[in-house]
Structures are given as C-alpha cells and as structure tokens.
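Customer escalation, tier 2.

The customer says the design service returned an amino acid string that "doesn't look like it belongs to this structure." They asked us to rerun it and document both sides in this ticket. The original structure tokens are below, unchanged.
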C-alpha cells in the first residue's frame, strides 16, 4: 500500500469523523433541548474571521477568545475551552482534508504524532473537569500569553527557513521527542492553547522545513478537536448558542483562505493576533484574579 492510498484513507477517516461529530452534537443538543443556531449571524462572522486566520497558520483560539469577550458572545467562561474545541472542530477537519495531500510528509511521522496528540486531547478534559471559573480564566490567559510569545519569536526569527526541503519527517530520537511534545500539546489544546505556532517552531528547531508542519498540525488539530470536542459535548461543557454559526462561518473562512488570500503577507496579521491575544489575556487575568466567592465555587 503506497503513501497516496494511505493519505486517501486518512481523508476518508476525516469525513467519517466529521459525520460522527455532527451526529453527536445533534443527539446531545436534542437531549439538552439546546439551540446551536441561536446567535447564528454573529457566530458566522466570528467563525469566518477566526478560521480564515487559522487556515493561514496563525491559529483560531486567541482570536475566538478575544471576539467572544469583545462581543460578549459567551456568558460562561468555564465553557470557553469546550466551545473553542467543539465549534472549530468541523472547519479544521475541512482544513485537514484540503491540506493533507499538498505537502509531502512521511507517514511514520504524521500518523504517530497525530495519535499522540489525540491521546493528550482525550486526557485533557478529564484533568480540567473540576476546575473553577477563576482557574479556567488564569489558565486561558496564560495560554494566550504563551501563544503571543511564540508568535513574536516566530515573526522575528523565522526559524527553520533555511532547513533543507528534502527532510520530510522525524527520525531517531527526534520521533519520540515529537510524540511527547504532541501529547502535551494535545492536552494543552483542551484549555485553549492553539497548536499551530508551537508545532511550526518545534519542526523548525529540530531541523525540518516548517512547511512539513502544515499537514501535521492541521491533522493534529482536526483529530484533537474531534476527540476533545466530543468529550466536552458529552460532558455538556459547551456553549450551544452560536455553535452552528461558528462552524458554518468557519468552513466558509477556510475555503476563502485557500482560494483567495493564501498568498497574502502574514506579518501584519501575526502582530494583530499578538495584540489581540495579549489584550484578551489581560482581561482574563483581571477577571480571574479578582476576589470573588462566586468564582471560587463555580465548578464545571
């Protein structure tokens, strides 16, 4: 079985996963008598903006968190990690479908790293399920600061740009290092840290051309969000209002990014994301560190 057939099998798995995830959301929303089509228009706008940027490699979690707070879209910060993962799951699966065959990467790197990230994503929601609102806000704020720092480093240093294009995967000790890295990253994604910038820098630092990171990070994100998103959905730790709008708007954003704006310079967008991430982190820290007996007792 050659690599091309395996990649098509992975694409088929993505399609099946997408259908299964949508079915799960429909079943749970009916059981909860929730309406994911509420706030539809605003959700479409947020999904379009954030997943357009996501397809360009700048991630979607920081911008979504910021837009949620700017528009008062979310009424419960404890459900923000679950909403981020569930709302963007379908658009990111579409990204993975479109990108997985465009950049050559060794399957011995792609498949194990994706599995490690999925395992981390499965464990994550169970670790954080008893966190209170204050801890969630501080964790999200910390994740956004980390993301901003990583983007700044990447913008200034452009790591890996001189790495040879002939290297298409991880070998030797670097593969288990990559597996551990992706397991941790899959876990951190469940509290709102995006995986794109960290993966790009990781591949660059270990001597692999950053372009190889795109199929890995997109397939990782797709499977991480399907696993963690499913966990959050079944635990009812998702804001249902606006979920459908974000997903649909996100799919449109992905298609537009792939067909229209993929070749635009991204330096200005990186700085915009840094600004948004730091501002949102500030508001989360401000609210999370504010003394409040209500916050301390608010479990999720």
């Amino acid at each position: 079985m050659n690599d091309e057939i395996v990649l098509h099998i992975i694409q088929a798995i993505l399609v099946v996963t997408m259908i299964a995830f949508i079915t799960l959301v429909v079943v749970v929303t009916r059981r909860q008598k929730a309406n994911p089509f509420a706030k539809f228009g605003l959700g479409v706008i947020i999904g379009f903006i954030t997943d357009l940027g996501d397809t360009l490699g700048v991630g979607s979690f920081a911008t979504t968190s910021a837009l949620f707070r700017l528009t008062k879209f979310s009424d419960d910060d404890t459900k923000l990690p679950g909403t981020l993962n569930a709302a963007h799951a379908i658009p990111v699966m579409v990204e993975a479908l479109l990108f997985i065959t465009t950049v050559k990467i060794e399957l011995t790197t792609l498949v194990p790293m994706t599995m490690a990230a999925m395992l981390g994503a499965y464990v994550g929601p169970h670790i954080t399920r008893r966190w209170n609102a204050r801890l969630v806000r501080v964790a999200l704020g910390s994740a956004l600061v980390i993301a901003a720092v990583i983007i700044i480093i990447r913008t200034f240093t452009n790591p890996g740009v001189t790495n040879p294009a002939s290297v298409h995967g991880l070998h030797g000790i670097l593969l288990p290092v990559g597996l551990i890295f992706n397991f941790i990253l899959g876990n951190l994604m469940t509290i709102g840290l995006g995986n794109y910038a960290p993966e790009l820098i990781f591949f660059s630092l270990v001597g692999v051309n950053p372009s190889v990171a795109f199929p890995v990070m997109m397939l990782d994100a797709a499977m991480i969000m399907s696993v963690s998103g499913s966990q959050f959905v079944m635990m009812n730790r998702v804001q249902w209002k606006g979920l459908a709008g974000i997903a649909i708007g996100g799919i449109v954003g992905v298609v537009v990014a792939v067909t229209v704006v993929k070749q635009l310079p991204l330096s200005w967008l990186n700085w915009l994301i840094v600004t948004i991430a730091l501002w949102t982190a500030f508001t989360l820290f401000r609210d999370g560190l504010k003394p409040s007996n209500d916050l301390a007792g608010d479990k999720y």
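Tier 2 assessment: The sequence is consistent with the input. Residues 135 and 288 are 7 Å apart (CA to CA). The longest helix spans residues 3-32. Sent an explanation to the customer and offered a walkthrough call.
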